[in-house]
Design a protein that fits this description.
Two copies of one chain form a homodimer.
Chain A (H helix, E strand, L loop, with lengths): L19 H15 L6 H7 L14 H13 L11 H18 L4 H10 L7 H17 L3 H24 L10 H4 L11 H5 L1 H5 L3 H21 L13
Helix pairs in contact in A: 1-3, 3-6, 4-7, 4-11, 6-7, 7-11
The structure holds a DNA duplex.
Keywords (chains A, B): DNA-binding, Transcription, Transcription regulation
InterPro entries (chains A, B): Homeodomain-like_sf, HTH-type_TetR-like_transc_reg, HTH_TetR, Repressor_TetR_C, Tet_transcr_reg_TetR-rel_C_sf
Protein name (chains A, B): TetR/AcrR family transcriptional regulator C-terminal domain-containing protein
Chain lengths: 241, 241
DNA sequence: ACCTGAACACCGTTCAAGT
DNA sequence: ACCTGAACACCGTTCAAGT
């Protein structure tokens, strides 16, 4: 049964009709500007000036809305599973994820937290795509499927660990000269925190990109070695199962 | 000026007076049972049967309450900075953190998320204690302070990455036989997710403790090598700065 | 001085009433 | 059939009124 002809959204329409992408990208913009906790259905409705109830056309509830925002953020990643050089691709993706996290720090809790709320298979597809694509990349590079999954986990764990590390040490008063003041370390009783206090200058010099690259060097070397057939210390060989 | 003599909480008191520990541990119990989102000041007040406003004696607001719960969870860790074998201590702590996460999965978002909201120096001391103690351990083991911090970051990143990995793959229907069904993978269009679907049996067999140990083997070997003076591929030597 | 609870300004979501 | 908005059952937190 053919649907009755729909009036296309002609330029003369007063309201640029809502759609999922607009809703989600506006939500992301709000998360970036006012934070996750302040993103409410009502606030979002106000931003899109529409009835808050209208949003429920595009997400069944707030949790699904947040899942949608997570998907939207992850879609900013471009992963080519057919890349000729898999190490180059993984390295580039790692830096992309890092940039993403720095661009959307308020959304990072979504990235690390949303997957904990839903079993793998029930997650929105956009949240699973990076996993599928990287596993595909690794298999194409020669890993046995089970080893590709193993390698993905190592990579993902390292990457998200790094991001948590880096964002944790972000500084609030970048204009302050003294690193102790800049990090608020003066508040720590030096009796209980002698090392932490004296590490202030080192803490203040954190270079996220460099740290990420150092880790990637080790990680990718290790993975390449497994692929080449060099047996790791006590890891199963690359053709397990 | 001596305080007026206080009536000690005699056993005859009808109400076992509130205190911070009771408030926080009850909050943790609630998080474990009903989840983070359902933990409200009012619900907590009801659980302790007291006026919700009374809780504000022990935490300035909900965010501080959550920080307190985070501290409480982290206090379950026993880290001995004077341990004779630093590798053994780090390994044990890693497993302790893993067990902690499995014991309190609903609190894991707090562990990874709370530190992102407050600059290092302004965080509650209980959240910084593991950092201080592990850095102390590493310095005692012979690391230069800056390298100890570096090593801590690697360790912390790996550990939290692993936990996110493992909790992400937790299964909801453990009684289901077929791994595809158990993980809900039937929902994925096999056109877009060929690898993920075929990996179902491998996904279903995730062994967190083993995976953690494999990673620790590599990590600790790498750290020990840096300590011993063997120069890593392109890492700064152990006596940087 | 401390504690209590009413009141305020919000929430997410349901559902009946409109078109 | 779709959209709208009133209403419900909650929130965190302020603050005036009690003791």
């Amino acid at each position: 049964m053919p649907a009755p002809p729909r009036i296309p959204s002609s330029p003369g329409n007063k309201k640029p009709r809502l759609n999922r992408d607009l809703v989600l990208s506006t939500a992301l913009k709000l998360v970036d500007s006012i934070g996750l906790d302040s993103l409410s259905m009502r606030r979002l409705g106000q931003e899109l000036n529409c009835d808050p109830m209208a949003l429920y056309r595009y997400a069944a509830n707030r949790a699904e809305l947040l899942d949608g925002v997570t998907e939207l953020v992850l879609n900013e990643l471009a992963i080519d599973p057919d890349a000729s050089d898999w190490q180059r691709q993984l390295r580039a993706t790692a830096h992309d994820v890092r940039q993403l996290a720095l661009r959307h720090p308020n959304a990072v809790p979504l990235l690390v937290t949303r997957p904990l709320s839903t079993p793998l298979g029930l997650r929105p597809l956009g949240m699973l795509r990076p996993l599928e694509l990287i596993v595909a990349l690794l298999i194409r590079a020669g890993f046995a499927p089970a080893d590709a999954l193993h390698a993905y986990r190592t990579y993902y764990g390292f990457l998200y660990g790094h991001i948590l590390n880096e964002l944790q040490e972000l500084v609030v008063n970048p204009e302050e000269e003294d690193p102790v003041l800049r990090l608020g370390l003066y508040r720590l009783p030096s009796k209980d925190f002698p090392h932490l206090r004296s590490l202030a200058p080192v803490l203040a010099e954190y270079d996220g990109a460099a740290e990420l690259d150092e880790g990637l060097d080790i990680l990718l070397t290790g993975l390449a070695q497994k692929l080449g057939g060099g047996p790791g210390p006590q890891l199963a060989g690359p053709t397990s199962r």
